[in-house]
Each structure stands twice: as C-alpha cells, then as structure tokens.
Q: What sequence folds into this?
C-alpha cells in the first residue's frame, strides 16, 4: 500500500539515499527536512520531494522517484503532497526549475514564468539565486487545488 508522509530529521538518510541513486546534487537537506515528503510502498521508500520556504514563497528543490518505480504516477503524487504541505505552511507561490522536466511539470499545471516575473513578485526577497536554470515554472496556492489535475492524459 502506498503511503506519503512528511519527513523528519530521523528520515533524512532515506531522502539522501533516493537523491544519491538519482544522481542529483542536492546540498543542505538538513536545513529544510521538515519541508520534505516521502512516499512509501509498504515500508520501502519509493519517492521524495522537498522545497525551501522563504516567507510565503517556496522553491521545489527536488523530486525523485526510484528508477524501478517511474511511470507509475508516483512523481505526480509526491509533488502534490509537497504542494499540500507548502499550502499548510502558508506558502502562496511555488517555483521550480523546469529545464530538465518541462513536460512533467506542465502536466502538473506549473505555468512557465520569466525570471523578470519572478523578480517582480518576489521583490522583498532574493530567490533568484535559488532558482538555477533558464525555465521556471510556478503554481499559485491554494488556487492550485481548486482544479482537477490532468496528469493522466
């Protein structure tokens, strides 16, 4: 049975293992472990996602699904769980670098925004140094949850 849970400091090794297996280079997870989710199938961790929060803005830093479990919509579920957690923590906008996975995030209804738009909406905080890449996607919370997702099309 699939179960998605919020991460704790005690579970950071599980997240680090999934990230290492995916060959991503993510640093400082300890600083935002309480903004991470882990998906388990029975007791095996199969996916994780995490964001950093700056005031009422979040940046989705990673989404990882175990190699042998891809194409099972686990990525959709773990991202939605992370967005739900962000919403509960008072986040109004979530940004993500969509350079590598544009189609995936597009299916999850992230809208591409320019770096200029990001700068304008986040004038009081400097988040551009956290957003690496050319293409940035955004969702607005809680509005995101008012429409059904079309990821299975």
A:
């Amino acid at each position: 049975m699939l179960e998605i849970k919020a991460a704790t400091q005690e579970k950071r090794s599980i997240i680090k293992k999934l990230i290492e297996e995916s060959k991503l280079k993510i640093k400082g997870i300890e600083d935002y472990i309480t903004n991470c989710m882990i998906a388990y199938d029975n007791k095996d961790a199969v996916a994780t996602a995490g964001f950093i929060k700056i005031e009422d803005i979040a940046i989705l830093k990673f989404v990882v699904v175990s190699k042998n479990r891809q194409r099972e919509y686990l990525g959709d579920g773990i991202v939605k769980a992370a967005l739900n957690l962000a919403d509960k923590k008072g986040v109004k906008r979530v940004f993500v670098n969509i350079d590598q996975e544009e189609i995936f995030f597009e299916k999850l209804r992230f809208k591409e925004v320019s770096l200029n738009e990001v700068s304008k909406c986040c004038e009081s905080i400097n988040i551009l140094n956290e957003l690496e890449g050319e293409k940035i996607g955004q969702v607005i919370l809680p509005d995101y949850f008012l429409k059904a997702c079309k990821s299975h099309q």
Q: What stands out?
A: The chain has a mean pLDDT of 89. The beta strands are 2-6, 36-41, 44-54, 57-65, 93-97, 111-113, 136-140.
